[in-house]
Amino acid sequence: SYWEFEWAADWADLSPRVLTEFDQFNNEGESFYTNKIGFKAILDYLREPLSPQMLHFNTTITNIEHSSNGVILTTSNGKIAKRYDYVIVTSSLGHLKKYHRFGGSCKIFLRWDKPWWNKNSSSIAPLPVEGMARDVLDPFERELTTLQAMDWDPNTLIAWVAGAGHPVVDNMSDEEFSYRLTKLIRDMKNDQSIAPPSEIVRTKLTKNELLLGSYSYMSLAQAKAKISHSRLSIPVRHKKRPVVLFAGEATHHRWD
């Protein structure tokens, strides 16, 4: 459902309080999405003023040693021979699951050599009904509810999966996902000649140890405990001076 897609959450665990805090500063019903360039242009812009020596790709921070004298970092390549005044941590909060829930909302890009859908379609909802199309719906068919057409690529659909469905599809191989999706589409269209997608592009976020999901949401337990996301931005201080600061989507109340 849209409720799950927007907040990357299982709707049964999502607090309605998100409706009072979420604000994109846009008109009601207005939505934004990237073009074929994606977020790369934004990253290129942020990287432009930085020297290559300041960027450490394929490197994981394994330890943050902090004191009143500053911060020393240890990476997967060893300890950095430099002491920093402070560091800003923007890592995924997928491991903080007691109150601040970390959910899943994924997009799977599906390309066909020849589109089988109407060119005027903006979105397609399979929605098999238990007891009619199937005696019993399994988690895959229950959670895959939307296929969205792309304006800038007429041969591609985006499959949206959120909430409890995210780990379900991440645990499937591309071959299994293609087979299950094709069967669902053929049954939906009553056309067994529809070809499987020729290409599948996706990232298994729940399998990435540095992510373990997509982004956080406000759970019922968090709302009941009156814990705001902004409390996660409280820094670690030494002698009243912040040395380890926290940022990212989970620390900002307006975007969760």
Give the tags.
alpha+beta, FAD/NAD(P)-binding domain, Polyamine Oxidase, Chain A, domain 2, 2 domains, 5-stranded antiparallel sheet, 3-stranded antiparallel sheet, Amino_oxidase, Flavin_monoamine_oxidase
What layout of secondary structure does this protein have?
Layout: H1 2-7, H2 18-21, H3 40-47, E1 61-67, E2 70-75, E3 78-79, E4 87-89, E5 100-103, E6 105-111, E7 123-124, H4 139-143, E8 146-150, E9 153-162, H5 165-170, H6 174-189, E10 199-201, E11 215-218, H7 220-224, E12 236-238, E13 241-246
Parallel strand pairs: 4-13
Antiparallel strand pairs: 1-2, 2-3, 5-11, 6-9, 6-10, 7-8, 8-9, 12-13
Describe this structure in words.
- This protein has 256 residues and is α+β, with helices and mostly antiparallel strands.
- It has 2 domains: 40-99 and 223-251, FAD/NAD(P)-binding domain (3-Layer(bba) Sandwich); 104-207, Alpha-Beta Complex (Polyamine Oxidase, Chain A, domain 2).
- The chain has 7 helices and 13 strands.
- The strands form 4 sheets. The protein has a 5-stranded antiparallel beta sheet. Strands 1-2-3 form a 3-stranded antiparallel beta sheet, with no helix packed on it.
- A hairpin with a 2-residue loop joins strand 8 (146-150) and strand 9 (153-162).
- The radius of gyration is 22 Å and the shape is globular.
